[in-house]
């Protein structure tokens, strides 16, 4: 097993496109890291640089204690699971898993033991003689996993491995992958654009945007302490409500078109800000009290366990996430925005304002 | 952690892999340049030689250089009557080649689209039978039944006619097979939607299927035109009157004039005519490369 | 046939009539005629013939020249098929790999497809011209006098070389398109699992090209047997003499030059059987061919 270290990694394509800006990341031994971000944010490029499938323009990459910038993918002691599985169509499941081992001159008996062991773990025993075309999507996914684990690599790389599966299977495989990784203790880097996968699987999440790291943190940190407007609105469904406001240097928040909504404890910052609040933190009532703001109700989405109440606060769209038990009060509605649940970001840089 | 940092800095940062890649790239390009040269060279030499007078080739073979007889040779090749009867010039052969190429391509496409449409989109008795009757023709190329085919044409009195030249070449199902494959890949829902919108078979064919097949038709057209233009054996048999010769058929005359021992053959003019013969299909294939490649490789599936 | 098909009393018939008419007159009739006349000894003056059963075939198989031509056809077909496939594959692999100039190379390596076989033959005649052809001169440098049309082996070599030149492009096109349809992720997965590019090609890429290669194998054999007619006729300057020739050329020579109709028909039928066998073989392979998706 191994730690992985990325130091000032850059990727500039020959056509001048700057895909990854100086990226620093230290991955601990056995850690499960998820790279998440919208498409085109550079997450896949970064993963492929770690794999050796893309050249590194500058910076240093270490896997274990080796500097691997210029090593061939095959020499990096890694295994990768691809989005479309990339199984060899002309080989049986058994041979798909054995291929990488055979190229390393490992004895037949050891290969057989490794393949059968992995097949046991993944419930693939009955399919070893089949070809990939005779398998279902979930089974192919398992074979791809099996191919990765038989090699006992220092590092697993996952490139959106679940995005070709249907929702139900995706949930199931998510849990399976995470359990397997815990059992094996192999350091893993997992790329996804799905925030649910990121939140549920990661030890730490790396949020990427436009080739740059926005934030590195545990799922809880990312969710509760988003470092920027981008992270705040990318992670969480429905996304965080954002209101244009100003801080006066003493902590008082004045929302455009609404007026004061409360005061933070001592924030010296003054100037335009964005104030965010997660939809589930908002409370609705039909009494105007404190800094309550009038909420114009437009429509409601029933989700079963919860309901999303869509409307406006002033002239800004606003969503409230209510528990199933909480009824929408009758009559005129008012939203209360508890000050301790507010996230404040600088309006121009998008950076979080320390509260 | 610390040890890893030091070991990393201690490692010499030689770009081992990149250097290997460069060597490989040099080899790759060398192979490709060599291949391209092998393909190009014979024709390049022929073009160059076609700018020389007849003595140059007679003395030294193919020329590497440029002389002043280019226009004269091409002029002669195109406009000076030659042959036994002295009635055939390059232009006549060129127009015969065009008629063969175009007639074959258009005829083949029209006939095979009709047949493929019937086979794919209609339910009728003998459908399977017709299918097999047509596709058996894929099994035997014209060359193996050349003699009796010639006799059939002769008994119809079609020798030295464009009909006799073109129609028998259409008697193989390659085009039909190609369009059948394509029609089968057209989404089922389209017919259903068209029928709900009240389109009958004719309207569906003209308003929907033909426009959808445009690229396929273009690809087929290029392949078939080149195939027709390049026919040699069949025109050699069917056309005995020189006025009916195509350019490719005329190659036989060039080569026979080369063996003529009474005088120095008109090598320069012969080379010029050779270039004129290959130019139209080569230009079409080069300019419509993507269609042509698509047509070729898709017909395999 | 489609699930949602039209039914119409006469339209399908109308659509099929042109195709069916042509193939009945110009395919089935000649094919049957070839079969029939192979059992007859034709009167050279055209007054019918005598039924002789399989005698034409027996005569053929006892004919030393015919057997020699058969042997040459086998050698010719194998060499042309093997070398044009090999060159096509090498060029395709390289063209698929390079980043710069890929489309130029592609054009340069495929345009010869459009050159007619007899034109290729004529180019060959110039290059192998006795005394001062370019290739003749290269051989002369090594002290070998190359005489096409006189020396059997020299002529065979020249015919094979020209036929390969003409056939490389189509193999190149198909192999390149086959290579480009190998998913990138499969190549990358192999890169991670196998450090040797050479081994990777033979264990992953080439097996994925196998369907293309099978298809091309049959195509190339058919080409060597039939489409090289133009190359051979021009290179022999229509004077077969004792020169090497293929079975197809022999059919033509006997049928149209020698007026040996019965024998020529029997040869046609033998070729038909050969092609049929090849095609059946091809269809069986396609049927069994693994669908890789």
TrEMBL record, chain A:
Residues 4-235 form the ABC transporter domain. PROSITE patterns: ABC_TRANSPORTER_1, ABC_TRANSPORTER_2. Keywords: ATP-binding, Cell inner membrane, Cell membrane, Membrane, Nucleotide-binding, Sugar transport, Translocase, Transport. Signal peptide: none annotated. GO terms for molecular function: ATP binding. The keyword Signal does not apply. Belongs to the ABC transporter superfamily. NCBIfam families: PRK11650.1 (NF008653). This is Sn-glycerol-3-phosphate import ATP-binding protein UgpC 1. It comes from Amylibacter marinus. The gene is ugpC1.
From TrEMBL, chain B:
Keywords: Cell inner membrane, Cell membrane, Membrane, Transmembrane, Transmembrane helix, Transport. Residues 94-288 form the ABC transmembrane type-1 domain. It is a multi-pass membrane protein. It is found in: Cell inner membrane; Cell membrane. The chain crosses the membrane at residues 26-48, 98-119, 126-142, 162-183, 204-227, 267-293. SUPFAM superfamilies: MetI-like. InterPro entries: MetI-like, MetI-like_sf. Gene3D superfamilies: MetI-like. Part of the ABC transporter complex UgpBAEC involved in sn-glycerol-3-phosphate (G3P) import. Probably responsible for the translocation of the substrate across the membrane. The complex is composed of two ATP-binding proteins (UgpC), two transmembrane proteins (UgpA and UgpE) and a solute-binding protein (UgpB). This is sn-glycerol-3-phosphate transport system permease protein UgpE. The gene is ugpE.
UniProtKB/TrEMBL annotation, chain C:
The chain crosses the membrane at residues 12-31, 69-93, 105-129, 156-179, 200-226, 266-286. It is found in: Cell inner membrane; Cell membrane. InterPro entries: MetI-like, MetI-like_sf, UgpAE/MalFG_permease. It is a multi-pass membrane protein. Its main location: membrane. Part of the ABC transporter complex UgpBAEC involved in sn-glycerol-3-phosphate (G3P) import. Probably responsible for the translocation of the substrate across the membrane. This is sn-glycerol-3-phosphate transport system permease protein UgpA. It comes from Amylibacter marinus.
């Amino acid at each position: 097993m191994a730690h992985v270290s990325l130091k000032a990694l850059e990727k500039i394509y020959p056509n001048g496109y700057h895909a990854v800006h100086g990226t620093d990341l230290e991955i601990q031994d056995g850690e499960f890291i998820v790279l998440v971000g919208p498409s085109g944010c550079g997450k896949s490029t970064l993963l492929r640089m770690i794999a050796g499938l893309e050249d590194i323009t500058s910076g240093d990459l270490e896997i274990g204690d080796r500097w691997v910038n210029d090593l061939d993918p095959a020499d990096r002691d890694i295994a990768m699971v691809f989005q479309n599985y990339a199984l060899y169509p002309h080989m049986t499941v058994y041979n798909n898993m054995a291929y990488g081992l055979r190229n390393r001159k490992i004895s037949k008996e050891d290969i057989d033991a490794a393949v059968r062991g992995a097949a046991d773990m993944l419930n693939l025993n009955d399919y070893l003689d089949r070809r990939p075309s005779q398998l279902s999507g979930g089974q192919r996914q398992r074979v791809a996993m099996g191919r990765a684990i038989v090699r006992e690599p220092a590092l697993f790389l996952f490139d959106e491995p679940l995005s070709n599966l249907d929702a139900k299977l995706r949930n199931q495989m998510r849990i399976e992958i995470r359990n397997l990784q815990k059992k094996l203790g192999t350091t893993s880097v997992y790329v996804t654009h799905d925030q649910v996968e990121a939140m549920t699987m990661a030890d730490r999440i790396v949020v990427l945007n436009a080739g740059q790291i926005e934030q590195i943190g545990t799922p809880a940190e990312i969710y509760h302490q988003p470092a920027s407007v981008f992270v705040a609105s990318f992670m969480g469904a429905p996304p965080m409500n954002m209101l244009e406001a100003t801080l006066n240097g003493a902590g008082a928040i004045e929302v455009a078109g609404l007026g004061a909504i409360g005061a933070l404890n001592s924030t010296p910052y003054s100037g335009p800000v964005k104030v965010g609040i997660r939809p589930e933190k908002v409370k609705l009532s039909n009494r105007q009290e404190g800094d309550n703001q009038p909420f114009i109700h437009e429509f409601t989405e029933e989700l079963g366990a919860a309901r999303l109440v869509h409307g406006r606060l002033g002239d800004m769209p606003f969503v409230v996430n209510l528990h199933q038990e909480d009824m929408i009060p009758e009559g005129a509605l008012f939203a209360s925005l508890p000050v301790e649940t507010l996230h404040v970001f600088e309006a121009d840089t998008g950076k979080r304002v320390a509260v | 952690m610390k040890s890893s940092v030091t070991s990393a800095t201690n490692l010499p940062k030689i770009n081992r892999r990149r250097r290997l890649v460069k060597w490989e790239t040099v080899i790759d390009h060398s192979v490709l340049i060599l291949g391209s040269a092998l393909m190009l060279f014979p024709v390049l030499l022929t073009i160059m030689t076609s700018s020389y007078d007849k003595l140059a080739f007679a003395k030294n073979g193919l020329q590497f250089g440029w002389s002043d007889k280019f226009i004269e040779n091409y002029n002669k090749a195109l406009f000076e009557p030659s042959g036994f009867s002295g009635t055939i010039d390059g232009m006549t052969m060129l127009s015969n080649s065009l008629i063969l190429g175009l007639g074959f391509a258009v005829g083949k496409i029209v006939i095979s689209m009709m047949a493929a449409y019937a086979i794919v989109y209609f339910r009728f008795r003998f459908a399977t039978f017709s299918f097999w009757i047509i596709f058996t023709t894929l099994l035997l190329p014209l060359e193996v039944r050349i003699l009796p085919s010639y006799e059939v044409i002769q008994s119809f009195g079609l020798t030295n006619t464009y009909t006799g030249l073109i129609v028998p070449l259409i008697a193989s199902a390659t085009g039909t097979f190609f369009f059948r494959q394509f029609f089968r890949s057209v989404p089922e829902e389209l017919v259903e939607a068209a029928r709900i919108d009240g389109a009958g078979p004719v309207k569906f064919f003209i308003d929907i299927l033909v426009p959808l097949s445009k690229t396929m038709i273009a690809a087929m057209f290029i392949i078939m035109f080149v195939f027709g233009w390049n026919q040699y054996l069949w025109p050699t048999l069917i056309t005995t009157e020189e006025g009916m010769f195509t350019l490719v058929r005329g190659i036989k005359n060039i080569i026979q004039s080369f063996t003529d021992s009474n005088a120095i053959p008109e090598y320069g003019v012969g080379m010029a005519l050779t270039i004129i013969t290959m130019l139209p299909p080569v230009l079409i294939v080069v300019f419509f490369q993507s269609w042509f490649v698509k047509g070729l490789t898709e017909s395999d599936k | 046939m489609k699930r949602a098909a039209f039914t119409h009393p006469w339209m399908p018939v109308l659509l099929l009539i042109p195709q069916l008419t042509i193939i009945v007159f110009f395919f089935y009739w000649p094919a049957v005629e070839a079969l029939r006349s192979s059992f007859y000894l034709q009167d050279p003056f055209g007054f019918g013939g005598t039924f002789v059963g399989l005698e034409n075939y027996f005569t053929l198989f006892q004919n030393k020249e015919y057997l020699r031509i058969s042997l040459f056809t086998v050698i010719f077909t194998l060499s042309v098929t093997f070398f044009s496939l090999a060159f096509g594959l090498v060029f395709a692999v390289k063209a698929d790999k390079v980043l710069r100039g890929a489309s130029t190379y592609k054009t340069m390596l495929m345009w010869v497809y459009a050159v007619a076989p007899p034109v290729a033959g004529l180019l060959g005649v110039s290059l192998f011209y006795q005394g001062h052809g370019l290739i003749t001169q290269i051989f002369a440098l090594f002290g070998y006098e190359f005489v096409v049309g006189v020396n059997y082996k020299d002529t065979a070599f020249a015919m094979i070389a020209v036929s390969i030149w003409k056939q490389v492009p189509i193999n190149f096109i198909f192999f390149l398109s086959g290579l480009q349809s190998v998913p990138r992720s499969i190549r990358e997965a192999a890169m991670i699992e196998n450090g040797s590019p050479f081994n990777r090609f033979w264990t992953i890429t080439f097996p994925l090209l196998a369907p293309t290669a099978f298809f091309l194998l049959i195509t190339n054999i058919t080409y060597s047997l039939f489409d090289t007619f133009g190359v051979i006729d021009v290179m022999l300057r229509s004077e077969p003499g004792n020169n090497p020739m293929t079975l197809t050329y022999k059919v033509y020579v006997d049928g149209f030059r020698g007026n040996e109709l019965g024998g020529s028909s029997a040869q046609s039928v033998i070729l038909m059987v050969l092609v049929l066998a090849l095609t059946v073989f091809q269809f069986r392979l396609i049927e069994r061919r693994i669908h890789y998706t």
